[in-house]
Amino acid sequence: MNVKQLRLGLIGKDVSKSSSERIHKFILRQFGVACDYEKISCSPAELDSVLRRLLGDFDAFNVTIPYKRDVFEYLDGLQREAIACGAVNTVISSTRQGYNTDGAGFLLMLATAGVAVQGKSVLVLGAGGSGRSSAVALKNAGAKVSMYRRNREELDEVCAQLGVEAARDPEAGGYDLLVNCTGVGMHDTEGKSPVTKKAFAGASAAVDLIYAPKESEFLRLAKEQGLKTLNGASMLFYQAYFADCLFLGREPSEAEAKLFYENYLKSTTEE
Known about the structure:
The mean pLDDT is 94. Strands 2-1-3-5-6-4 form a 6-stranded mixed beta sheet, with helices on both faces. A 6-stranded parallel beta sheet has the order 9-8-7-10-11-12, with helices on both faces. α1 packs across α8 and α4 (102-113) packs across α5. α6 (152-162) links the parallel β8 and β9 (165-166). Helix content is 38%, strand content 19%. The chain starts with a strand and ends with a helix. It is an alpha/beta fold. The longest helix has 17 residues, at 254-270. It is globular. It has helices at residues 20-30, 47-57, 80-85, 102-113, 129-140, 152-162, 217-224, 233-248, 254-270; strands at 5-12, 34-41, 60-63, 77-78, 90-92, 97-99, 121-125, 144-148, 165-166, 177-180, 205-208, 228-231.
């Protein structure tokens, strides 16, 4: 997109607390591009009309919980990462192509925080769009991945699609790393955790994709058990960086992404 200003948006069930607008505007400023960014919270009943407006009036948009799979039927094609994990978080309207930058952002977050995954056993809680992209990224990085969701039939289906193990009891413990991709712990479930402290037995680290609040109940319990903890704030930034590179046709650079994030954090603390 060879333009100086983009019209972008974010769609999800409740994006009222999302930092996406601020992050995308910051990143694009580094590239000399301005943008209008609209956050759109919508119910399933409103989804059709909202997606049609986004595809017709916006240059591109991002997709979050719970619509990362619902958007499929509105697209003309899916790129490799979106196909692999079965979820879309980024759409370019002119081509109606769906992408997924969550996995790349997730792995860069882990690497930057010094959380090694190669050869480690990882339990991914949740099998929605974020859970799928995280599981695929972890598997590709050499981790032994297990997933859990309460609906056993849906769990088996997703695990078969992704080529990962189905965890029968998330409280059993014995994993090196636990990743919460359920969304439990934010909005109306703030203060709740998808597992009890028993699940952290034997683990060294826990990651929650939630970033508001900064420390979810899941991470509080993990820290109480002596684990290293990490929330999803940097992942949100990194997946946005990779998405913005798609919007602009730029080759992404992990070093550039890290530098931008450092500068972003400085800009937020200076205000």
